[in-house]
Specification:
This protein is globular. The chain is built from 19 helices and 20 strands. The longest helix has 18 residues. The strands form 5 sheets. The protein has a 7-stranded mixed sheet. A 5-stranded parallel sheet has the order 10-2-1-14-20. The chain starts with a helix and ends in a 21-residue tail after the last helix. With 477 residues, the chain is α/β, with parallel strands linked by helices. It folds into 3 domains: 185 residues, FAD/NAD(P)-binding domain (3-Layer(bba) Sandwich); 102 residues, Guanine Nucleotide Dissociation Inhibitor, domain 1; 99 residues, Alpha-Beta Complex (Polyamine Oxidase, Chain A, domain 2), CATH 3.90.660.10. The protein binds flavin-adenine dinucleotide (FAD). Flavin-adenine dinucleotide (FAD) binds next to helix 2, strand 5, helix 13, strand 19 and helix 19.
């Protein structure tokens, strides 16, 4: 990195441009501002949050999330970022998950009093959604995932293949592995590398009750980031919206970056590119040539994306008292009761959001077909929905919601905090954080980029939040 220029400047004078106002860019920007750099965050849209954001939908005259986002107690970097910007109090936490079968029969999975990793066992044994054979298969799978270290960390196995070889019943596959795990990783079973599934099982179900606690925003997603702008401004920084970066050039003579954005030209000592891989691919031809660019291009070319769709429904009456539920054996997967989860909404209607993960078939349906299917299925789970009137509807389709984690993908995730160019660092959920496509992966990448930048200034800053310690017997596993 450009050490000549660094030596001549005081630390407070050094300027950073962070490109991308998603969780990765925001977490990097806030950490760097705390380290004393002057940070400008440059975002192409008119609001913050990227793929985890909310916006005003004129069709329904409501602010809606692009999709419900869930986080977990083990998301330590995301929580550290929320803490930094004062958003942690806006998360609603729960330790239980209700599974509903068509017809309405419910099973509740959640943490009990036994020490980890047994804390979820009593509720699994009591769950009517699973047969005895399903429960036995699941318990054997969890214990095999805990025990078989090297095999599980081999990135050549897919989850689907492993399940077939480990005697999983159809019920366990359909109602647990496909619906809970594949849906959390947002891909089909055969397109998920085993270590990622093992990580989810370990973090969410086995390590501790706290690690598996599920959090949901109690405000529309973009409101979570309201504190970030003030945080940056108070430290001499700024947020620039509607300022998509069109090109960037490195000036070797004065050791600085010059950027062309839709809001004008900018210059800085450091650049953090916190972009999804598709946006980085678009920017690559407008970046200076450098050794390593071709490798980055190859890495990007190996990435795939998976869709997530949501049907937002406003009813004239409440259709359930549940905050959220997993819906079994149908196309729709998750129900989130937004009227309960986001109580600040000033609307008389009862708002629920239905989420359909990893379904390219659903994403390909026409608008009315998708809505009709979702409403018809919802009525199978909640009798009250049959008599209720749908007052308004919104359909959101995020075709590029998440990147896939198929076997072998780790060789093609670039390291966060590095890049082919001088004084430039990559961040973004798809960089090599060890996490699947999640807000935690984005926040980790942001913190790793901030750490690398501080290290380049000769400063040791531990921005990466440590993982939660396993509890109970898991401490000895
Ligand atoms: C529908 C859906 C549901 C999801 N559900 C969950 C969930 O439940 N839990 C979970 O943890 N994760 C979930 N995710 C994944 C999560 O949203 C992402 O992993 C995370 O938000 C990625 O953050 P990021 O900062 O890496 O990228 P992004 O959020 O994509 O941010 C990149 C930003 O860069 C901006 N940008 C692009 N090009 C330019 C340019 N040239 N100049 C300036 N700015 C630019 C974009 O507008 C964007 O704001 C979901 C994602 C989607 C889409």
């Amino acid at each position: 990195m450009g050490a000549r220029r660094l030596a001549a400047m005081t630390k407070a004078e050094q300027q950073v441009i962070v490109v991308g106002g998603g969780v990765a860019g925001l977490s990097a920007a806030c950490a760097l501002a705390e380290a004393g750099l002057r940070v400008r965050l440059v975002e192409q849209r008119g609001y913050l949050g990227g793929r985890a954001s909310s916006y005003w939908h004129p069709g329904v005259e409501e602010t809606i999330d692009n999709c419900q986002h869930a986080l977990f107690g083990c998301c330590t970097n995301l929580l550290a970022f929320y803490h930094r910007i004062g958003a942690e109090g806006k998360i609603h936490w729960t330790r239980a998950m209700t599974m509903i079968e068509p017809g309405g029969r419910r099973s509740r999975l959640g943490a009990g009093r036994l020490p980890a990793p047994m804390h979820g066992l009593p509720s699994l044994l009591a769950a009517r959604a699973f047969t005895l054979a399903d429960k036995w298969a699941l318990m054997r799978a969890f214990s095999a995932l805990l025990r078989s270290g090297a095999k599980v960390s081999s990135t050549e196995w897919s989850l689907g293949e492993w399940l077939r070889r480990n005697g999983q019943t159809q019920g366990a596959i359909d109602r647990f592995w496909r619906l809970v795990i594949a849906s959390a990783l947002n891909a089909e079973l055969d397109a998920i590398a085993l270590p990622y599934a093992a990580k989810v099982i370990r973090e969410l179900l086995l390590n501790s009750a706290g690690a598996g606690a599920m959090g949901m925003s109690a405000v529309p997603l973009s409101e979570l980031y309201a504190g970030a702008e003030g945080y940056l401004r108070a430290r001499g920084g700024a947020v620039m919206l509607n300022a998509g970066v069109e090109s960037a050039a490195w000036n070797e003579a004065d050791g600085a970056w010059r950027l062309h954005t839709r809001a004008g030209a900018l210059a800085a000592d450091f650049l953090v590119l916190a972009l999804p891989f598709e946006a980085l691919a678009k920017l690559l031809p407008q970046m200076p040539p450098a050794e390593g660019v071709e490798r980055l291009r190859e890495q990007i070319a190996r990435q795939t994306h998976w869709p997530i769709c949501s049907v937002h429904l406003w009813f004239d009456r409440a259709i359930t008292d549940l905050e959220h539920a997993v819906l079994l054996d149908r196309t729709i997967h998750w129900l989130y009761n937004k009227s309960l989860l986001q109580p600040g909404r000033a609307t008389g209607s009862h708002y629920v959001e239905l989420v359909i993960s990893a379904s390219r078939e659903f994403a390909a349906l026409g608008r009315q077909q998708a809505i009709d299917l979702a409403v018809a299925e919802l009525k199978e789970f909640f009798p009250a929905a049959r008599a209720a009137r749908v007052e308004k509807v919104a359909l959101t389709k995020e075709v590029r919601a998440t990147f896939g984690v198929p076997p072998g993908i780790d060789a093609f995730r670039p390291e966060p905090g590095r890049s082919p160019w001088p004084n430039c660092l990559l961040a973004g959920d798809w960089t090599a954080t060890g996490w699947p496509s999640t807000m935690e992966s984005a926040a980790r990448s942001g913190h790793l980029a901030a750490e690398a930048l501080c290290a380049a200034r000769g400063e040791r800053r531990g921005w990466l939040a440590p993982d939660l310690r396993p509890a109970g017997w898991m401490r000895f596993v």
